[in-house]
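Figure S4 source data
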Amino acid sequence: MQDAGFVRKAFAGIASRYVLANHVLSLGIDVLWRRKTARLVAEMRPQMILDLATGSGDLAQTLRTACPKAKILGADFSVPMMREAQCRSFHALVAADGMSLPFKEASYDVLTVAFGLRNMASWPEALTEMRRVLKSGGHLVVLDFSIPTLPLLRPAYLFYLKNVMPRIAGWITGQRAAYEYLCSSVERFPSGADMEQLILSCGFASVKIHRLSFGIASLYIAEVA
């Protein structure tokens, strides 16, 4: 179980500098990850998209460009983060907790969640709730950090994650403790086959895995039967 109260407080504290910190820490690669995600979603030709844990609206805006005919709603439990989305001209927003979504069953064709599932109180409960609001034949799209498996890259990345990233993020946002938590959560978060099994155990019919940037991030696309 993640500490939902701490996560809420952490995101409120870093909201105004969150986008800048992401771009600096990833050297801008996070922009490419979101574009790839949006391209794959566009191939699904969805009419209704829910972008959960939308935060500052980065993925929602990318989806809006890639899927101009779709209705896109952003949802997040952090109001300060959604205010940042409003400042960046994304206004289709609702305050909602991923553990108890205020939507009817089978409401959406696609549900996206970028760098958000990792911070939810219970991953299985959150995934089950996501499954509930997706239509038959719909898709869950999860984008998040993962741990590379390459022998040389893995230790270097873990060192960066534990020792370098929190320092840089702390300098940018003034909230080092928040990033120490967020960075440590990456190592605990299941990835690869472990994430595939977790998603399947929550009622999804199939999962495809796309490893991004040598496994620094992973994209999981699950289909509802």
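Figure S5 source data
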Amino acid sequence: MKYTLGGTALALALLALAHPALAEAPPPQSDTKAKTKVSLVSDSTAVEPGSTFTIAIHLQPEPEWHIYWLNSGDTGLPTRVTFEGPDGLSFGEIAWPAPSRFVDKTGGLTYGYDKAVVLQSEVRVPDDLLARVAEGSLVNLEAKVAWLACKENCIQGSVHLGLSLPVREVAAADRRSANTPLLAIHAARVPSALPAEWMLEFKPTTSPVKGGTPFELKAYITHPAGEALTPHPDAAASFVPLTASGLIVRGATAKGLETGGLEVTITGEADIETGPLTTELAGVLQLTHGGATRAFHVATTLERAPADPDVIAAALNPTVTSTPTIAAAGDVCASVTGGSGGDELISSFMLALLFAFVGGFILNAMPCVLPVLSIKMLSLVEQAQEKREVIWRHGLAYTAGVLASFLILAIVLVALQATNWAFQMQDPTFVVIFTSIVFAFALSLFGVFELSMPFASKMDATVANSHGYMSSFNYGIFAVLLGTPCTAPFLGPALTYAFTQPPLELTLLLLMVGLGLAFPFLVLARFPAWRRLMPRPGPWLITFKKAMGFLLVGTALFLIQTLAYQVSRDALVGFLIFLAFFSLALWIYGHWTSPARGTRSRVLATMIALGTVALSANAFISTEHPAPTAGSVVAGGITWLDFDQVDVNAIAQGGKTVFIDFTAEWCTTCKVNESGAIYTDPVREALKALNVTAVKGDFTIHKPEIAVWLQRFGQPSVPLYVVIPAGRPADAFALPTILSVNDVLAGLCRGGKSTSGTTASL
């Protein structure tokens, strides 16, 4: 015990010390994570007292990937940069180069960079620096960077970088570094104030802008010398909004004027307000002048007016076509207690290790793992009369099976660059193979067949025990395969962190999850005092063993249900026919390959069994995808729109609060949440009283659009529950992974009542 656990702990400690942040070593100057190379650079080779220099983050997304600007737009996450240094040094505001404009598959507008960009800040050095540090000593500058890289799916990245510069009194020209030209090029892309001599005039089509209605604003810009101004190469990016309280900017167009000036038309919508006010609309105006792209910071103030009375009335008192028994919105929210925030993200490697271990430990109590744990309990009963050292070896074999499975899973995740947990359950081929194995395991418990080694009748006790150890090893593999579709408490934040880390940290965190999963049985194996509570093996054990087989049959049926959502009806029927032939093949193998049979009978039966499996698999197994589903489905007494067929941001922008249930058929945590928290009378009443649109996103098969939302809210996999408040799609928020009725009600009440449309169908 001391050697094994002590050795494991020592190995974990040594690997943890290899992590820069844990070993107190200076952070690296550059790193590549989340499809982006990130470097910390400076335009100076030294720090001179009383001077200023520039420090910058150089981000280089891989081809076809992009990261986000200060205002990420309808989706995405802004890139975050924090510079740090010794006391006395001060950092200026970050200079953001003008962004590009992107349109996602749902029509949402986002702003960011798909090419290299430099985010820089001016560092001011105090005059008395030499009174604090000696000349020639090193000043350590650090930067913490977090970003979201997106293509068809998104990956969150974060990194801690460092740069050391010597303190020296040296002329500015002699301090220039090799990075100075790079910083100068990107500094030219940073929007500047419009020169005073240029003319800029904003003219709203209608003034004041009325709440609840679209608006159009024209900007006219002319050069003082009458030089020609032409639209930005991407005319729709002629204006990129930065702040627009109460206004939603939908787009921009631009055209040149005969006078040489430029007309930019900005369109959008105004929020509903109950009183007049003014709103500042600020952003970046981009154009082409003299063959070069120019970008300027501009702002104007728009007069606002309240919406028409009928619009306000419809917003504050939407039509509710419910029965008198349905509670009003105030009644629904009056009894709600507590918050509705999502799971907290973690940023510490050591804390992630702790969360991974605790999450793996709790995974033992999740519904998906229980069938295998029941079989493992059966093995404990069988081992109760064994010697202490034999039981301990079984515990080690089980742990080895768990850890080996997580190691292989980590290798596959790294090789495939997968970004979500339980990705293998989204592959119907894997589900078909795994279901067949579980079904075969159930048949073995029923006594249909037993796997035996050649000359099994002559095996001595040592070999028999070795064969038993292999069973314990296999139990560990099964526990991992059945456990990966689950997300236990503490496990979600740990996995979210793991998917943003390099291969070594990812592997170590997954092994820690495995150690937590195996830990209870490892303790039982080491301290087998429980043996006194176990009855002696007898005929009852055969009955118990067969009863455990029915648990595996239930697991196989659960997997078949998952497959029903991944393949067509014909493919599902074909797989069921295959299982019938598969059962026949196992019966043939079990009946004619016992040690009492002759060698010829055993060989012939084995060949017939293998041939039956191969021929039936070739004839009946197919992974043909199912036909598209209808636009809505009724589940749990709630009508759900299909996430694949609607634009949730557009629905929210249109005045409807949206509740999204991202789920999957293989996700048992999702099923528990649905039956215990979502498909309940209080939630059904709240959805109707608050006029909420319910949307279901099915992640049973991998869908990049859903992966984007998982990455946005830092979830490694489903379940994910999101509420989008009416009129405020940018303010969407997530609910906890493990739900209660109060969590759902609190989230719906925080999202608020829909301001337009009719009530959701229930």
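Confidence is low (pLDDT under 50) at residues 1-24, 316-328, 452-467, 757-762. DSSP finds 21 helices and 27 strands in the chain.
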